[in-house]
Input
Amino acid sequence: VAIIILAAFFRLWRIADYLNFLGDEGRDVMVVRHILQGDLTFLGPRSSAGDFYLGPIYYYFMAPFLFLSGFHPVGPAIMVALFGIATVYLLFRIGNEFFSKNAGLIAALLYSISPLVIIHSRSSWNPNVMPFFSIAALYTTYKGIKQKNFYLLARK
Output
């Protein structure tokens, strides 16, 4: 619990003063504003690595946070920070299950105080939630295989 509180402190303390708000973040806020006005989209941001688009799920995750913050960019940044805090918990669970409680605590502590991770957890750029979803997908796949629970792997 202390590590989660520490992670929350580093990610949320004065977040409005430290968040990055550049071109990609501005574009995302504009798209989400249009979504909240009823103009739904099925295209996410364009990839910088090729000529294709990512899915729009990030925009729809952003929508309630942007709305609740009164369309202030700090709302989506808080969402990313919350995903970062949840990632700390996931790392503890995985470290504890795969190795030991101490390994889980050390992994969670290192991730919670990592300066680079903290900086990325304060910005609403769409790749910043990837650690949470990557770890959650791998962990769910592992649990599905280990428990022979194929519902966790795919729906029929």
Observations:
- The mean pLDDT is 92.
- Residues 74-98 form the longest helix (25 residues).
